[in-house]
Q: What sequence folds into this?
């Protein structure tokens, strides 16, 4: 079996490739050049492991598929997660295609996740990784059956400390390399600054308003705010204020001083992808999360023509349009969608 491993030069992808080679697979490494940043550590990892190494130039595709979507979402008043988009269209889209075209059977990555073939349905299931603190299934929920059936996640049954221990044991240079934290094309975390530079314009100021539409002050551009935000608003109301919602058409940011207004039990999502089934049965009991770092909460699913409505047992804070809502049945990812808003 031939496996192409996506290499970044970090400890996770390097150990993933090492484990596959140790298990007897015919392993190669590959990296995509997406942002103009050199990735010498990826080549260094391949050299250390003594495996063939491929490099693919995909800056234009990345710009079109990921960065353009990122900018458009912010301009619509959403708060996107570009890593999810990159996974489905670039890593498990373009790179998986390159792997299969070059005679490989699978694409492997250093994601903390697992796949499993369901004997009854024949579907390839996506399961959470052993390391719950690092589990990345939230970022992978958009993968389809073709992508999942040709994917391998060698780190699924390991924890981060175990992976670093393996790396140290084999003398891997990246054993103690810090994990990347920011979006790869916005390394300083200044999303607004990036968008204004990318679009070549300054986003217009507009009004902060209350729920009745009364003007409270001036905001510095819609892209600088997200639902639930309290700090950095640049307005003093005499009491803590929160972003309740944004209106791209009116270029307004709605503020409130009662944090409970941010909580809702009913959250709607569209652009839905189901992994474990074609469509879940009405009233399916699941656990769900509406942000990557959030703990799951109990919910009931209602599939509609518009997407899926999740009715939570307990109110959830700051259902943010553009973020993903992902559903689980125990360890198994049922599917997910993009949050439209709370009801």
A:
């Amino acid at each position: 079996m031939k496996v192409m491993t996506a290499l970044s030069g970090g400890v996770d992808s390097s150990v993933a490739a090492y484990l596959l080679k140790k298990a007897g697979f015919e392993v190669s490494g590959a990296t995509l050049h997406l942002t103009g940043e050199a990735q010498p550590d990826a080549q260094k990892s391949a050299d250390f492991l003594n495996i063939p190494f491929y490099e693919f130039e995909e800056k234009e595709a990345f710009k079109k598929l990921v960065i353009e979507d990122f900018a458009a979402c912010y301009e619509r008043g959403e708060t996107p997660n570009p890593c999810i988009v990159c996974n489905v269209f670039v890593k498990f889209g373009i790179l998986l295609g390159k792997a299969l075209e070059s005679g490989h059977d699978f694409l492997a990555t250093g994601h903390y996740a697992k796949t499993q073939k369901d004997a009854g349905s024949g579907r390839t299931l996506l399961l959470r990784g052993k390391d719950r603190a690092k589990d990345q299934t939230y970022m992978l929920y958009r993968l389809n059956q073709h992508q999942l059936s040709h994917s391998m996640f060698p780190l699924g049954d390991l924890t981060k400390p175990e992976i670093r221990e393996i790396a140290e044991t084999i003398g891997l240079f990246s054993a103690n390399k810090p994990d990347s934290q920011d979006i790869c094309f916005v390394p300083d975390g200044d999303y607004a600054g990036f968008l204004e530079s990318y679009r070549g314009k300054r986003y217009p100021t507009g009004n902060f308003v209350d729920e009745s539409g009364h003007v409270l002050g001036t905001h510095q551009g819609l892209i600088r705010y997200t639902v639930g935000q309290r700090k950095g608003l640049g307005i003093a109301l005499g009491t803590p204020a929160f972003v309740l919602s944004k209106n791209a058409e009116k270029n307004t940011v709605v503020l409130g001083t009662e944090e409970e207004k941010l909580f809702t039990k009913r959250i709607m999502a569209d652009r839905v992808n189901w992994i474990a089934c074609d469509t879940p049965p009405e009233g399916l009991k699941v656990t769900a999360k509406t942000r990557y770092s959030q703990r799951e909460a109990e919910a009931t699913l209602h599939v509609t023509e518009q997407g899926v409505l999740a009715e939570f047992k307990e109110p959830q804070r700051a259902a943010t349009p553009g973020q993903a809502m992902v559903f689980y049945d125990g360890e198994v990812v049922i599917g997910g969608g993009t949050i439209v808003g709370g009801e």
Observations:
- The chain has three domains: 2-170, 203-257, 262-342.
- The mean pLDDT is 96.
- Helices lie at 11-22, 40-49, 59-75, 82-101, 145-149, 160-170, 191-199.
